[in-house]
Every structure is written in structure tokens, then in C-alpha cells.
């Protein structure tokens, strides 16, 4: 299976813009959705699925595919939009998100092509990624395993247990990405459980660490595409992001965590995204 070719920066920006548009539309549906955290990781998802991951939508269960786990499963609308844009299922299916009979639920499930495991109970994704990486080693496969975590999720002790295990087992085919938007449902993450200096914390656990602008898909693709960065060490990219990125009236606010957009705010969001895309 041939890896996804790297796209030009303008192409990745365009993909990210389409993903954001889908996320906004889904969050204007009857159930709403986790808008802020999905928009903060959109550029990460665009970089992964359109530049980095060795995946094939027509062979979603290929044993040599790279694995991706959305540990912050509440950002499922972002993953669904990305998978649809990548061709795992029809974009038109996104319109049924959260409705009776739809397989597009509030958190990812295996019924959706491209979803490896159900996620959303925070703190479990990195341990699952360790299991995938270790299984691939035993099977002699050179695939890579990517896990996207929220920064609020780092308050779960199981994340750090997995971090210790990954370093001890020298799982250098494991790559974590932290969506460092600085906010969670109840306020600023550092006001609830301070994590800084976050990069040094990961280094102390034996990981190779890099930091990046989480809204520059070209930079993200460069870092993620070149992992592992140090032989014998798992890699973690701390992506500095903005919760609700792309929507001026919600960006950087905890209020964007879960939103059901009214028709007025939906139209407002669509206009804002279009204006941002035109400015690129």
C-alpha cells in the first residue's frame, strides 16, 4: 500500500477549511456537538489524513495501515468530517450526524469506516496506542501508531502510566499529539491542574518531544511525517491550538466546548469561515 502523498500547503489549508465547514454544519443539527475541541484539532487531522498516514479508504482494514486513535473522542465530529473528506464514506452522510439510525454518534464507534476503536472515555487512548504499537512489533510490521489527546485529558493518571510503559518498551513507532488549546469544559486547564512545563514533563518520561503551531498544517505534517524523531523513543508533538479556531465569536472560549448552533449563529459561523478561507 502506498502512503498518502504530501499535498501542497494551500491544499492542506483548503482541506482543513472544508473539515471546519462540516463540523460547523453538524453542530447546527438537532443534537449539537463538541465544536470547540473539534475545531482546535482540525489542522492536525488534515495534516495526518492528507499528508502523513499510510491509509487507504478502499482498504480500511489493510493490516499494514497506520493506526490513528482519537483519544479525545468527544471531538468525533472533526474525525467524521475528516474521514468523509478522505473518502472513507460519503460526505452526504455527515448530514445525519446524531440522528436516530445514524452510525455517526457523539463518540467514534467501529461501525464507521476508518475508526479503529470506540473512544471518548478519556485517558485510555494512549494505552491503546501502546497495545497497537507492541502488537505491530510482534507481527514484524513497520506501521506507525498515532494518538491524539486533549490537554485536559492529561489530568488522567492512566495517560502517564501509558507514557511510562511506552518509553520502557521503546515504542518508537508510537506518536502522540497533544491538542494544547488550554481550555476544558470548566475553564482554563492550567487553572484546574497546571501542566507546564509540559514539554519537559514528557521528556522526563522518556519521550522525544517537539512543539508546533497547531494551526499550521504544513508544519504539523513536517513534524509528524518525520517521526520517530529519536531511535528507541516514542514521540509526542505538543500542538499549540485555539479552542473554537476559525469562529471569532467562540474562539478561545470554554463556551465553545459543546454547542448547538442556532440558525443565526450557524449563518454567522459560515460567514466567518468563508471570510477566513478567502483570506488564505
Automatic annotation (TrEMBL):
Key words, A-Z: Metal-binding, Thiamine pyrophosphate, Transferase
Cofactor(s) listed: thiamine diphosphate
Domain Transketolase N-terminal: 15-262
The keyword Zinc-finger is annotated on this UniProt entry: no
Pfam family, one: Transketolase_N
UniProt-listed InterPro entries: THDP-binding, Transketolase_CS, Transketolase_N
Name this polypeptide is given: Transketolase
